[in-house]
Amino acid sequence: MPTPLEGVKVLDVSTMIAAPFGTALLGDFGAEVTKVEIPGRGDTSRSVGPFKGDEPLRWPGLSRNKKSLTLDLHKAAGVEIMKKLAATHDILIENFRPGTLEKWSVGYDVLKEINPDLIMIRVSGYGQTGPYREKAGFGTPATAFSGYTYLQGFTDRHPVSPPFSLTDYICGIYVAFAAVTALYHRDTNTSGAGQMIDVALYESVFRMMEFLVAEYDQLGKIRERSPGLAGHSSPSGTFKTKDEHWVVLVTSTDTTFNRLAAAMNRADLLTDPHFHTNASRLENNEAINQIVADWISNHPREALLKKLDEFGVPISPVLSIADIFANEHYQARENIVEVQHPRLGAIKVPGIVPKFEKTPGSIRSIAPDLGEHNEEILEGLGYSLVEIETLKQNGVI
Predict the structure, then answer these.
(1) pLDDT at 190
(2) Distance (Å, whole) CA 57 – CA 43
(3) Which end of the chain has fewer CB atoms at under 10 Å, N or C?
(4) What is the dotted CATH code of the domain comprising 236-240+246-317?
(5) Strand pairing partners for 236?
(6) 9, 88 in Cβ contact below 8 A?
(7) What is the DSSP-derived secondary structure letter of residue 45?
């Protein structure tokens, strides 16, 4: 089937997770992604766990649908190749510290002269401007800077960082969104042209904080840590069932609370002035949560889930990855798919998200070995095999 981004050429000059995840999303939907890596070492995410022997297990899912070109931008010949690549690509995505590409003579000011239609997306911890622009930027510190970490954890303990690179992955979605938005503008407007886009890691999460900004601006309130949804809806939280399983339940509207009360056979809660509206329940959150916790503790998980599903109450079991692998819904949605790895054999990776009706994404190739496509890409730029061998001997590729 045709793919939405067929014919779009993306140059991935990035490392680790945020920007590479964005280019992976573009690759899933048909973009031709050329990944530029440091000769001999490659993308640093090749050396990030988990591992099976010497094989990085994150790599196949993060870098599928990409071709690998090794290139040393510290060398003049490498800079020349980069300029030729920029001339033939629609989008260039990089995540070096601000000023690095300029130091190597391949900043946006140089590349846009070569290709005015080039869209260049620049990812960094704190953005291309501002007093913190040169600070080293990684996802976990950026999460703290965004205000998110301050909110997460128990009130009597220290703030807790997410247990994986959450901000990097969220940022990657913004990268893909920025790419297709700029591409649409370039290709549908008579005055359209390429442009530079500045994406900061911390802003990816801060953009989701409307409630936090509004609350402090209008009420002067500093929201403190909570181990679950707080200040929005009540009851909500993580509860233990009779058979010692954890479930998460939330009633984000009065309608869903009415359904919960019906499921619990507690019509009295709907007229009790302490609980009859979300506002009143928030004022008495501890009490209503305890009522719900006591009720849930008297029901086995499967019976509880069945009952609340019948009443339309939002609830989910807390799933481990083993639970996910066995889950029928994950299987029906093809959320985990199998691909072939040249050394590991059959391996599982996340499926395509989102699901397009007419132009679905696909995994067309496994993540590349380092420099696997050097000859293919350089020959496409007009280099002979002799010239390519010289570049290799000189450490350019």
Answers:
(1) 85
(2) 14
(3) N
(4) 3.30.1540.10
(5) 250
(6) yes
(7) G
Catalytic residue among 54, 109, 168, 323: 168
Residue 394 confidence (pLDDT): 97
User: CA 254 → CA 260, 275, 294, distances in Å?
Assistant: 10, 10, 21
CB 370 within 8 A of CB 70: yes
Is 168 one of the catalytic residues? yes
- What's the pLDDT score for residue 1? 75
Write down the mean pLDDT value for the chain. 95
pLDDT of 252: 85
Name residue, tokens 């709907």.
Answer: 270
Buried b (16+ CB within 10 A) or exposed e, 38-68: ebeebbebbebeeeeeeebbbbbbbbbbbbb
Q: Where are the domains of the chain?
A: 9-207+332-394, 236-240+246-317
pLDDT score at 230: 75
3-state secondary structure of 190: coil
> Residue 205: is its pLDDT beyond 90?
yes
Q: What is the DSSP letter of 226?
A: B
This model's pTM is above 0.85: yes
Q: Please list the residues that pair with 12 across neighbouring strands.
A: 35, 93
Residue 261 has pLDDT above 90, yes or no: yes
51: β partners? 56
Q: Are strands 91-94 and 9-13 parallel, antiparallel or unpaired?
A: parallel
